[in-house]
């Protein structure tokens, strides 16, 4: 995300770093480039003007002009202004505000195709992890498939997402066919859902309302009547981040009619421009509460302006990375693995557990992109996640004793494992060789947590997971400065320019 904007900001700040000190002329010259970068990112023109004028005002101060390290001073100024642009006010508290006694009623609205129904499921997943009883109400009666989709999502969250909470579903299928009476039917369904939620001691009731291809009177009339009928505690607008200024215009129109409490940006992981994220708060006055960063049910994150500003400036987002790691690995598990690593006794079973934990945190490229200085190096590069699939398949084809002791893997066993995993015997041999290298290296990084281990491994060179899945005949090497060491790399593939 923000690839283009990050490139332009990095270039501008790099040029300023070469100056002896910041002057009025070179600051104005830099801001011309920044303005162009923001407009190319599809940020709203009012936002661009406001941001550039604020940076100029701050940068032309005497303290910055006489700074010894002008590039670093400018990074701090730009960072602060980016944060201000995306934040401000008491309503910027991440997440949802709960009422007691419940249920907290959350009304979701948005245009068709924005990902509204899927986001309802993702919110339910977050709340289930928090121990909440959530009810999803299908109030989108314009699109029959929306009711079935929400029901499927409710079942998936209940069955697949770990947590002490519970997810239930409410719908009135007979109302779906009442297209001509859709507005009145939606009001009836939401009222009945609220009554059911109170009866069943539900903590949070999420209303999935109808959307349209564009904003029109019929849509807004239905939303207003549902709002009056159930008086939701919070109204969230779901918008597609990839639509840039169009998303911001939609947010303003919805807010003018409904008085939103927050915005959820979907497809944020695919938004390489970032204009919507930079503009929504300034134009609507409403905070971004969540961002969708993938298709899976657990790919919804709280929005933190300071972390996004850090990513835009290429400084990574270590805090989010640490939080992801803590969600997947307990302190006890981390301590036990650390002890094994220190003694050089990590097994294939341990290694498989680490792979699974890391994959639950997100794609390898997104995780590495959160590390300072690494995100820029990944531009135009695809990391082949299928290599990790092959690695898991090979390990899962081993029996328990083989996972504990790879020395047992003679040629006959390797051939059996390769047949079971759909790979070649040479792939199994290469995995074993790579694992032994990792085991040797593990003593050096045993004192680090999962995130630090990721960073240390990434810093050792172009890590190629193919070394651990047997896709090359020769063992790849670490670029550590020690020519005698070798080990796994992540296989990377540069995209062809069009």
> How many helix segments?
22
Uncertain stretches: 454-498
| Rg calculated over all Cα atoms | 26 Å
Structural class: alpha/beta
Summarize the model shown.
The chain has 22 helices and 10 strands. The chain is of the alpha/beta class and 498 residues long.
Could you explain how this protein is built, in words?
There is one protein chain. The protein has 498 residues and is of the alpha/beta class. The protein has helices spanning 3-17, 24-40, 45-59, 62-65, 70-86, 116-129, 144-160, 173-176, 182-199, 217-230, 245-258, 275-284, 305-312, 318-328, 331-342, 348-361, 364-369, 386-396, 400-404, 411-421, 425-442, 450-459; strands at residues 104-109, 133-139, 166-170, 204-209, 234-240, 262-266, 288-292, 300-302, 381-383, 492-494. The chain has an 8-stranded mixed beta sheet, sandwiched between helices. Strands 9-10 form a two-stranded antiparallel ribbon. Strand 5, helix 11 and strand 6 form a beta-alpha-beta unit. Helix 6 runs parallel beside helix 7 (144-160) and helix 14 (318-328) packs across helix 16 (348-361). It is flat and about 70 Å long. The model is unreliable at 454-498 (pLDDT under 50).
């Amino acid at each position: 995300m923000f690839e283009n904007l990050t490139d332009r900001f990095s270039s501008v700040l790099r040029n300023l770093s070469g100056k002896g000190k910041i002057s009025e002329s070179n600051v104005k010259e830099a801001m011309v480039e920044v303005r162009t970068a923001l407009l190319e990112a599809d940020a709203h023109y009012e936002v661009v003007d406001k941001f550039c004028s604020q940076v100029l005002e701050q940068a032309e101060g005497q303290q910055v002009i006489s700074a010894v390290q002008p590039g670093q001073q400018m990074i701090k100024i730009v960072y602060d202004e980016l944060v201000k642009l995306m934040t401000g006010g008491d309503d910027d508290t991440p997440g949802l505000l709960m009422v007691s006694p419940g249920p907290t009623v959350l009304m979701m609205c948005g245009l068709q195709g924005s990902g509204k129904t899927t986001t309802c499921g993702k919110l339910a997943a977050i709340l289930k992890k928090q121990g909440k009883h959530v009810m999803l109400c299908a109030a989108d009666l314009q699109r029959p498939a929306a009711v079935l989709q929400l029901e499927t999502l409710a079942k998936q969250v209940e069955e697949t997402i770990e947590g002490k909470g519970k997810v239930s579903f409410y719908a009135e299928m007979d109302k779906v066919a009442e297209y001509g009476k859709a507005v009145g039917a939606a009001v009836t369904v939401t009222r009945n859902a609220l009554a059911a939620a109170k009866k069943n001691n539900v903590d949070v009731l999420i209303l999935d309302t109808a959307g349209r291809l564009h904003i029109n009177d019929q849509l807004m009339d239905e939303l207003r009547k549902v709002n009056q009928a159930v008086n939701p505690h919070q109204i969230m607008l779901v918008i597609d981040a990839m639509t840039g200024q169009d998303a911001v215009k939609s947010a303003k129109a919805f807010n003018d009619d409904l008085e939103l409490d927050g915005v959820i940006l979907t497809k944020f992981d695919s938004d390489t421009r970032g204009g919507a994220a930079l503009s929504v708060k300034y134009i609507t006055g409403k905070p971004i509460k969540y961002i969708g960063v993938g298709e899976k049910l657990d790919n919804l994150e709280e929005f933190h302006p300071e972390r996004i500003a850090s990513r835009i400036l290429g400084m990574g987002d270590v805090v989010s990375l640490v939080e992801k790691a803590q969600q997947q690995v307990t302190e006890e598990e981390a301590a036990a693995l650390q002890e094994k690593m220190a003694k050089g006794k990590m097994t294939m079973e341990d290694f498989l557990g680490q792979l699974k934990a890391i994959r639950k945190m997100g794609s390898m490229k997104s995780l590495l992109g959160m590390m300072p200085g690494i995100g820029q190096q990944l531009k135009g590069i695809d990391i082949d996640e299928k290599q990790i699939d092959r690695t898991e398949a090979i390990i899962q084809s081993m029996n328990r004793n083989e996972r504990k002791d790879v020395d047992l893997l003679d040629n006959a066993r390797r051939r059996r494992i390769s047949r079971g995993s759909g790979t070649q015997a040479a792939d199994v041999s290469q995995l074993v060789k790579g694992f032994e290298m990792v085991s040797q290296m593990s003593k050096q990084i045993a004192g680090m947590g999962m995130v630090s281990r990721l960073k240390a491994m990434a810093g050792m060179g172009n890590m190629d997971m193919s070394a651990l899945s047997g896709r090359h005949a020769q063992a790849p090497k670490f670029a550590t400065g020690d020519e005698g060491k070798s080990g796994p790399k992540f296989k990377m593939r540069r995209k062809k320019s069009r």
